[in-house]
Amino acid sequence: MVEELNIPLHHMSKEAKYQMLLSQIQSLLEGERDMIANLSNIASVLKYGLNFFWVGFYIVKDQQLILGPFQGPVACTRIEKGKGVCGKAWLNQKTIIVPDVNSFPGHITCNAASKSEIVVPGISGKKVIFVLDIDSTELNAFDEIDSGYLEKIVSMLIDYSDC
Ligand code: SME
Questions:
Q1: Which of 77, 107, 120, 142 maximizes ligand 1 atoms within 8 Å of its Cβ, making it the mutation to test the pocket?
Q2: What is the pLDDT of residue 87?
Q3: Is the pTM of this model over 0.70?
Q4: Does position 7 have pLDDT exceeding 70, yes or no?
Q5: Contact residues of ligand 1, CB 6 A cut-off
Q6: Number of the ligand 1 atom closest to the C-alpha atom of 114
Q7: CB-hemisphere CA count at 13 Å for 87?
Q8: Cβ distance 46 to 52 under 8 Å?
Q9: For 84-114, what is each residue's pLDDT tens digit?
Q10: Please, which residues have CB within 8 angstroms of residue 111's CB and are 6 or more apart in sequence?
Q11: Closest atom of ligand 1 relative to the 108 alpha carbon
Q12: How much of the chain, in percent, has pLDDT values that exceed 90?
């Protein structure tokens, strides 16, 4: 779509990129209800659409977060409730933006190249089903534009998938 208009992806604003990805995500989710399939495709859409360092999901299982579909380098496989950014987003059922991972007490380092991070919990009913974790090699990479769109995308994932 963008190619047809001859607008290079790197010239678009972050908001415009998210807007474009939303319609792609909508059509991907409309045809599929399997959660793992949907998490897999959305990890890919976000990684390649926004060029993040690491995009992935941790799924709640047996009172832990266990690594799910992701795009990027290998990562930690299990995170306890309340531990790290992911475990805190699960515990508090709230999005966490970390401008500088070295200033976040308890941050779990899976890859030393990560400098900032956002984690968005996927909540169905009152339970967290999974968390979306995105890492950047830049400091301060995430703001309210990211949290707004990513919360929308996560709630679409919950609505369109059998959790
Ligand atoms: N940094 C995360 C762990 C997951 S990795 O970044 C992929 C945390 O502190 O929860």
A1: 107
A2: 98
A3: yes
A4: no
A5: 54, 75-76, 79, 84-86, 107-108, 110, 114, 117, 133, 135
A6: 6
A7: 18
A8: yes
A9: 999 999 999 999 999 999 999 999 999 999 9
A10: 53, 54, 73, 75, 135
A11: 9
A12: 92
Contacts of 53 (CB under 8 A, 6+ apart): 72, 73, 111, 113, 114, 135, 136, 137
Instruction: Name the residue of 79, 98, 103, 134 whose CB sits within 8 Å of the most ligand 1 atoms, as the mutation to test its pocket.
Output: 79
Q: What average pLDDT is seen over the chain?
A: 95
Task: Tell me which residue has tokens 């299990």.
Answer: 78
18-45 pLDDT, tens digit per residue, is 999 999 999 999 989 999 999 999 999 9
The position carrying tokens 């930690």 is 76
The CA 74 to ligand 1 mean position distance, Å, reads 11
